[in-house]
Amino acid sequence: MMKFEVIRSETIKPSSPTPHYLKHFKLSLLDQLAPVAYEPLVLFYLYNDRDVTFTPAKRSLWMKKSLSETLTRFYPFAGRIKENISIECFDDGVDYVEARVHGLLSTLLAQPDAEALRQLLPVEIESPKAGTGPLLLVQENFFDCGGLAIGVCMSRKLGDAASLNTFIMSWAASALGFSQALLPDFNASFRFPPMDCSSAHNPAVDHIIEKRTNGCVTKRFVFYASKIGALQTKAASANVKQPTNSEAVTALIWRCAVAAASRSSLLHKSPPKLSVLSQSVDIRKRVVPPLSDDSIGNLVGYFAAQANESELELQGLVAQLRKGLKEASNYCAERLKGSDGSRVIIESFKESDDFIHRDDIMNFHVCTGLSDYKVLYEVNFGWGRPIWVSNIPSGLNRNVASLVSTREDDGTEAWVTLSEGDMATFEQNQELLEFAVVNPSVLEPIALKSAL
């Protein structure tokens, strides 16, 4: 068991004061509807002989200086939310924690454990501070071997995973001396103006929160590229001739999760019901006119794919996912434009709330695909690229899967959270194990590649 010890905590503020005309930053309507929680991320760096000049103290100074410079351009990140309408940008700063991990990074990477990984973060993912306190928190974790893990938490009220990507990449560019390499776009509130109230919420998220239970288990599954190719072939049909990586993996996880839940309730005979999977989609390039890739905010839409519990064949589930994505893309292009965009968003959330509370729905699953995190494997603060990038889920909500790309190939890594009973069945599903490996070493594919 590794021991985690906080060495010091401080506040990092922008290197230059925020101008008075930027003191009040409006949230977009989508930001208002976002849950009060943090978007987590941890980047892992192995120690090597070239790092000898980068002592922990020097690394911290290097990181803090470049962070302070980056906050000048990302000034809302150093502010505080006011009544779910705006961010007061008075340079309150971000929390910065330095911690010592008594153990080897290689030991942690040999079989990553969700509970241990969460200790590398500076705050609990579901903390209410995300709506009232620091919008960004950082924790530097120094291992006895010289390895480093950088844990970052960004308030979901401020932005989505893509927004966090943009910030991390800009921070790394600042560390290397390219401060103007990547600039944020803060125009989301002009496209989706906020409502004049403090109670805006996302009913779909509320439904998920209702499903919280103390008996959740989170486990990691890796789908290597060679296996995904075979999975895509199996999932192909006349409706979807070439399933994407994400479609094939998501459909398999969905199918196996429903099978596990059905086995847990075999004694309860009832008419066939629907299984629903809600998936997030980046709307930046789907709205008309499109938003820039560097737009900051919760620029995420959701679509629901549904299937009868008696018709959960892999090909059919992929077809439902493709249909849902197509409908979501058309929705963004046709309805989220002009002055009616905000009204349409509110109506869509109400429709979602009515839908997921229907009596004929057997179970509700959530899947987030974060393939854009692939770019973070290029993030270099001055001592090389990360060996692993991970987004650890909170583990408080069951029936949730989070997908990210692997480092070495076009594989996919999935963190899946289910009830204890469902997970016991899920992780032994032979169809799942035909394509996925349960929590393999992060270092294994790198070691194999080096040996070739």
UniProtKB/TrEMBL annotation:
<keyword id="KW-0808">Transferase</keyword>
<comment type="similarity">
    <text>Belongs to the plant acyltransferase family.</text>
</comment>
<keyword id="KW-0012">Acyltransferase</keyword>
<dbReference type="Pfam" id="PF02458">
    <property type="entry name" value="Transferase"/>
</dbReference>
<protein>
    <submittedName>
        <fullName>Putative salutaridinol 7-O-acetyltransferase</fullName>
        <ecNumber>2.3.1.150</ecNumber>
    </submittedName>
</protein>
<dbReference type="GO" id="GO:0047180">
    <property type="term" value="F:salutaridinol 7-O-acetyltransferase activity"/>
</dbReference>
<dbReference type="InterPro" id="IPR023213">
    <property type="entry name" value="CAT-like_dom_sf"/>
</dbReference>
